[in-house]
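Human: Here is a favour to ask of a fellow structure person. Comparing notes only helps if you start from a blank page. I am asking you to supply a protein in sequence and structure-token form. Write it directly below this note and I will take it from there.

Assistant:
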Amino acid sequence: MVGASNSVSSSFVDGQGIARIVGMTCIVGFVVDMTALVFPLGAGTAWRVGLLLQMGDRSIVLLIGIALLIYSAWESQGLRKLLAYLSLGLGAFFLLMGMLVVRDSFALYSQTIANIGNQVSQLETQVEASRSNPEITANATEDDFTNAVRAIETQAETLRQNAKTSITRSGVASTSNFAVVGISLLSLGRLSAGAKGRGGMRSTKKMRR
């Protein structure tokens, strides 16, 4: 019985060592990836949305890393609680980032629609200016100008629909990632902060006996 208990304990310690290595690898990899994406620093809604989308896609790696580190420090109450508070903080941060993605997605969509509208106005102005150009009117009819304006409007509507679909799809996916990982980190933090290590569980069992 003692040999079996020692074998289980040794396996648990070995498992903690593996979890510590993999957990640190996940966290370092996440930090390196995000640092590479952040620099060089950009500005504007489009840059921020792109960065948040990348962060949301990689957030599961951070979740796995934190979970493995907590498992590796399960018998160390002080370190485990420190990691638990880190998990709680990151969970709240990710939920806030999810709300930021929603706000920035609406802003980016408005900017995109405005840019499309400006381009349409410029093209329509060029078409109208062509009506008074003798060299162009000599080889074009009124129907040609009408068809050109109609083609511009059709293409603009297609661009608007594509922008709406693309931005909405990306925003929903990123927000979902942030929400799921954020809630998971909060749950992991609460569980780890209130749990007892194996040593504490053994002491409780001895007291009951």
